[in-house]
Amino acid sequence: MVFKAKVRGIYSTAITKLLLENDFEIIEPSIPIQQRFNLQPKQGVIDLKIKDRFDRQGIHVIGTPEATEKFLQIIRLNLFDVITRKWLPTLDGIYKGIVIDKRGENFLVDIGVATGLLPEREARNLKENEEVLVQVERRRIGAKYPILTSKIKILGAHAILIPVPKVGVSLKIRDLKKRFELYELGRKVAPENWGVIWRSSAANKSFETLKKEITCLREKAEEVKRKAVNAEAPSLVLEGLYCLDVEFPAVSKAKLDEIRKKVTPTLKGHHMFKAYGGNVSSLLEMAEKLIEKGEEQEKVESLFKQQISSELPLEGSKISIEHVKLSGKIFSLGTAVIEKIDDEKITFRRVFQKPGIYDGLGIRKDPGDNALSNVKIFDWKIETSYFSANGNYKGTYVNINTPVELYPDKIRYVDLEVDVCILPDESVRILDEDKLWKFVNDGFISRRLAEFALNQAKNVAEERSVK
């Protein structure tokens, strides 16, 4: 089966190549993508939409279950350290839920895979433990508490049935004659007590095709009603679209660089530099245009590195430590001062102001304690030793993570859960292996990445035990 995908963002060239090599068809390609792949502009029903995350560290994916699963297979096969986070509620999915509580102006509704927020204005008389039919809204996608609505819509390729007797036409359809025709058609074919919103693709379809879709949507609405009566709450009544948050750590970015380079001039580190944004991203585009015009790549890369050197931190600079969990949660480990940068090796120190306990070490943290970290850029670990204010050694923590990336104002990596602790008596322990495998079982990372991370931890433990 050929799926249709729309791709936008800084990863679009590499992702497009992967999709075309795996039997996807590209819909509404941008001008650069048309030129790079000799594609014609095409319209059609989109099975998969891909765009950048706001931080450019990966992509957001929305698609049909089948298209999304195929895309997951492709990226897991090609990108070693890719991290995939599936939003458990399906977008536009219809659920039979149970009211469990009230929070402010919303009811908390258990839909099985999550607890959602149903605005009180939509269902004022609901009571605790009451069953209610709800749909996941297209707002706050990826949130812990999805936004729900009791105003059920039935979505099709070219039309949407809505529970209000009115007709709407997509603003993307600008031809006034076509808009009028669709308004008239909607009034004629809308089922009783339902309205119709015509999607942009309706502009290119025959009235007969659109009438048939309305018939199918009416039948689907009746099927949802029947299923909802017999379903046990909480449960899924009608599956919607899958939503994925996909993270591209350093190895994935490098692989995407290689894939892009097969299509168009690409500097080493392209996708990481694009994630920098701002001046660095602009300089990168200029440099790659020089290569496109025939300049020697090695010479251009050397010039580019000179140009961006002023953007990177120096000895004495303050940087933040962005510690990303596999779940997607981001922790700032505070501000550090760089004490030394030498051949991509960085030593930085943090001073703690508040008391606490050092995770894993089980040793008390006191105000004035400091942490000295040593890291090599693109290495799979960060080693941090802890000292009291008067210099007494308190232990060492070796974090196993995706290769460390250096940005103008921060160091960034994704924590791979498993860690190594070295206590003051030089005893060595590997921690949290069970957490690592849980993320494998939940589909966040591949088994081969987990095995690699665990081997990294075992190697560190063995080296420190020998010492």
What is the name of the CATH superfamily of the largest domain?
Nucleic acid-binding proteins
Q: Please summarize the sheet with the most strands.
A: 7 strands, mixed, barrel
Question: Which spans have pLDDT < 50 for at least 5 consecutive residues?
Answer: none
The counted number of beta strands is 27
Strand content: 25-35%
Task: Enumerate how many helices there are, as a single number.
Answer: 11
CATH architecture label name of the largest domain: Beta Barrel
Helix content bin: 25-40%
Describe this structure in words.
With 467 residues, the chain is of the alpha+beta class. The chain folds into four domains: 3-87 and 243-255; 91-240, Nucleic acid-binding proteins (OB fold (Dihydrolipoamide Acetyltransferase, E2P)); 277-311, no CATH class; 318-466, Beta Barrel (FomD barrel-like fold), CATH 2.40.380.10. The chain is built from eleven helices and 27 strands. The strands form five sheets. Strands 17-18-19-22-23-24-26 form a seven-stranded mixed β-barrel. Strands 2-1-3-4-16-5 form a six-stranded mixed sheet, covered by helices on one side.
